[in-house]
């Protein structure tokens, strides 16, 4: 069976290297390996030794023990993908975009059957199928960020549901049929009786944000199980915003990312090599 994490060893060291603007030649020299060997590690065609993992972790400011667990495929989140409690349910919709799975979610208020559509996974038809299958009433579309694999099909969803769409004020705006509603850190939205708080998590994109309610946080590409999203805008902003605004939450809060399996704050504090 394929390893369940979105990012493997090669992704992690590549993201850390690029985020800190360090060349392959610089890393290879410092680690005592060839540039070709480093490139093969980043491309999954060469497995590192334990000593190489720890040396690379030290150079890249990663946690060596956590990185080794991922390099040797000894860890993945143990908790189930879905959550359901007295107040809310989460429905995960995962579908390939460009060959790679992308997640959208339905956040359902169990008291009212109202639901928020969180991202689109670029497959609006699948989202609408799940809306019908679970007999819920969409009241809002929440976008964690504007990348096309998370927003394609937005106009179709808007037309089908009549929902308003919310996106962070600092984020580039995707194609939309209606005027987008802008939000900022600490804004609170309602989905039925659920209160959903907007949390800043930029770095992957300028205005990336997460949506927090009860014991669930929808984090887009800010953090994955054992990794982070590509730091396209700012590595420092991504690391700091995730650490300060997500990993400061109680350990039991479940994190629902845009790619890969769900995880928890506690698991990421114990196993994510970036923190």
- Which residues sit in consecutive blocks of at least 5 with pLDDT less than 50? none
Radius of gyration: 19 Å
β-strand number: 14
From the 3D structure, determine the CATH topology of the largest domain: Metallo-beta-lactamase, Chain A
Mean pLDDT over the residues: 96
In CATH terms, what is the architecture of the largest domain?
Answer: 4-Layer Sandwich
Number of domains: 2
Query: How are the strands ordered across the major sheet?
Result: 1-2-3-4-5-6
CATH superfamily of the largest domain: Ribonuclease Z/Hydroxyacylglutathione hydrolase-like
Question: What kind of sheet is the major sheet?
Answer: 6 strands, mixed
Q: What sequence of helices (H) and strands (E) makes up the elements?
A: HHHHHEEEHEHHEEEEEEEEHEEH
Question: What structural class do helix, strand and pairing data support?
Answer: alpha/beta
> How many helices does DSSP assign?
10
Measured distance between first and last alpha carbons: 28 Å
Indicate the proportion of strand residues: 25-35%
So what's the CATH class of the largest domain? Alpha Beta
Which descriptor suits the 3D outline? Answer: elongated
Helix content: 25-40%
Mind explaining what this structure looks like?
The structure is a single chain. This protein is 31% helix and 25% strand. It has two domains: 9-71, Orthogonal Bundle (434 Repressor (Amino-terminal Domain)), CATH 1.10.260; 88-271, Metallo-beta-lactamase, Chain A, CATH 3.60.15. The model has no long low-confidence stretch (mean pLDDT 96). It is of the alpha/beta class. It has ten helices and 14 strands. The longest helix is centred in the first third of the chain and has 11 residues, at 9-19. Helix 2 packs across helix 3 and helix 6 (124-133) runs parallel beside helix 8 (154-161). It is elongated, with a radius of gyration of 19 Å. A six-stranded mixed beta sheet has the order 1-2-3-4-5-6, with helices on one face. It has a six-stranded mixed beta sheet with strand order 7-8-9-10-13-14. The chain has a two-stranded antiparallel sheet with strand order 11-12. The chain has helices at 9-19, 24-31, 35-42, 50-60, 64-71, 124-133, 148-151, 154-161, 235-245, 265-271, and strands spanning 88-97, 100-109, 114-118, 137-142, 164-168, 181-183, 188-191, 194-200, 209-213, 216-220, 223-224, 227-228, 254-257, 263-264.
